[in-house]
Recover the amino acids of this structure.
């Protein structure tokens, strides 16, 4: 486990260090499904399944209270969006470079209600029990190869009735052509030398093989929903499983 942590930390530190110098790294825009998820958190539904928000269409989408955590934030886009909704935000990230850039941007622009810090993958989340109303981990959570431990940690830091949203590679994602199996029993793979993104070659991750697999992983939570998003907009086919739910 120790060598695996070192390998992962080195790759992701190097990944962000190689980026163009400037402001925060990664996507400059928030995840679309995170926006939808948060915007609909307080909405109720009619018997026919449509939104029951007449007269409150705008109010219900903002002015949230509480604490939000993003695991593996990379860039600030999601945290900035959550801040705009009213959350007090904390982002944790394995890359020291990503955290350094985020802190510089936040300080330079005098932005409050967002804190970022370095965190070592597969280790205890550095927060007290029942701290967060919302926990987010998009296109990153699976790089914690001790996935069962991390999910237990997520349960620990989420408040009762707190919500979450995570994403995982589906079996149809184009990246699945470029894997080496590390541990078949534990669903651990790594990106092979043939992977088109050379920055992440060798990085190990947990591969959820099915929606049923995901459902079992999050057995401690209720009101779970798993859905698929796919697009061929990019050269490599994108296919993701998203899971949402609450404690």
């Amino acid at each position: 486990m120790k060598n695996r942590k070192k390998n992962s930390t080195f790759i992701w530190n190097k990944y962000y260090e190689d980026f163009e110098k400037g402001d925060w790294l990664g996507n400059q825009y928030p995840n679309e499904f995170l926006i939808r998820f948060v915007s609909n958190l307080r909405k109720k539904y009619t018997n026919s399944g449509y939104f029951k928000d007449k007269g409150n269409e705008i109010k219900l989408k903002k002015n949230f209270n509480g604490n939000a955590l993003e695991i593996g934030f990379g860039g600030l886009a999601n945290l900035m969006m959550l801040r705009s909704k009213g959350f007090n935000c904390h982002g944790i990230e394995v890359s020291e470079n990503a955290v350094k850039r985020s802190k510089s941007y936040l300080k330079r622009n005098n932005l409050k209600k967002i804190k970022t810090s370095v965190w070592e993958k597969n280790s205890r989340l550095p927060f007290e029990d029942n701290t967060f109303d919302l926990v987010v981990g998009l296109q990153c959570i699976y790089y914690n190869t001790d996935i069962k431990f991390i999910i237990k940690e997520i349960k620990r830091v989420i408040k009762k009735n707190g919500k979450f949203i995570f994403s995982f590679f589906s079996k149809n994602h184009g990246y699945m052509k470029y894997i080496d199996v590390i541990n078949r029993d534990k669903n651990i793979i790594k990106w092979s030398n043939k992977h088109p993104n050379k920055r992440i070659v060798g990085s190990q991750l947990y591969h959820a093989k099915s929606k049923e697999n995901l459902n079992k992983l999050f057995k401690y939570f209720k009101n779970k929903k798993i859905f698929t998003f796919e697009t061929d907009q990019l050269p490599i086919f994108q296919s993701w499983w998203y899971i949402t739910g609450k404690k």
